[in-house]
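Take a minute with the sequence and fold tokens given here and flag any structure token that looks odd. Thanks in advance.
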Amino acid sequence: MDEASSKFVDRLVQEKLLEEKLSRVHHAPVGGIELDAPDLFDEIAPAFGNELPEIVEMAEGFRFPSPARCDHPENRECQVLVHRAPQAIGSVVLLHGLFEDSRGIYDFLIRGLLKLGLNVHQSTLPFHYDRRPSASLFSGEYFWSANYRRTRRGFEQAVRELDALERIVKEREGVAPLVCGFSMGGCVSMLLASMRDDLAGVMAINPPARLSGIVWDSPLCATIKDDYRTAGYSMERLEPAFRAFEPYSRQIVSLPAQRIRLVHGIYDQVTSIDQYESLALAWKLEGTLAYKAGHLNTLRMPRLAGDIANFFQTVAMATTETPRT
């Protein structure tokens, strides 16, 4: 799509989400927000490397119990859909974006990856799809809202599950997968990259990096911003609270920069381009891929599957040539 069409699609989808879903719910920061909260991931990093959870096989993939505590029964297991390439050379763990209720938007990308020999393990963010609690109006409502403490726990859960899934796939397939996330899934993927130095690689597509900035600036978060303002919180008060679990504020990034690839659409109307450029600068990332696309139709770019496959092969070769000690 050209610039005008790309921007139109982003705006149309956001308007639809706001009108049909987000404007119909309101949440408050129950219990307040943690202005001086410790870094969330310093707290959960010791859990990495624990014994893998027990897997339950399903016709379309498998599921496993979440390593993080959750009060909602529907959200206590993570479902993984598995797509097999005819002649696989490796695997990708794919983590989706925020508020999604149709996995079909990934079909074009998945078909491309399968043709290039990459199995795809399609994960599920907390509170999305079949993990949506019965009291929740739509997929992802309880993951990202003005209920700050629940949002913080949701990020903890998402990162711990992605860590477990990456290790599960490595054990089952015999080869470490490339971790690939879109939008909020890309944010979670980058957080995992900041904590583990033994991943094969991480490719993040349109990942938000400054979470308080997303709340305050993204049109998609207009109602969430209003909920925070109604509760008496300004952006200045939110910034320190979100630093505990956002990619941009990670002081130390464990995974080497050459094993991280950032992809973004230059016509993005959901996440500011400044978010991507600031993250690339802060993390000293090289080889950032900028597509002539919006936030959503980045997934429809014909080159995306090839860029993912090329990056997989690059990091796989580097890992083979430089054994870990």
Observations:
- The mean pLDDT is 93.
- The chain has ten helices and nine strands.
- The first helix runs from residue 3 to 20.
- The beta strands are 56-58, 61-65, 77-83, 90-95, 118-122, 178-182, 202-205, 260-265, 289-291.
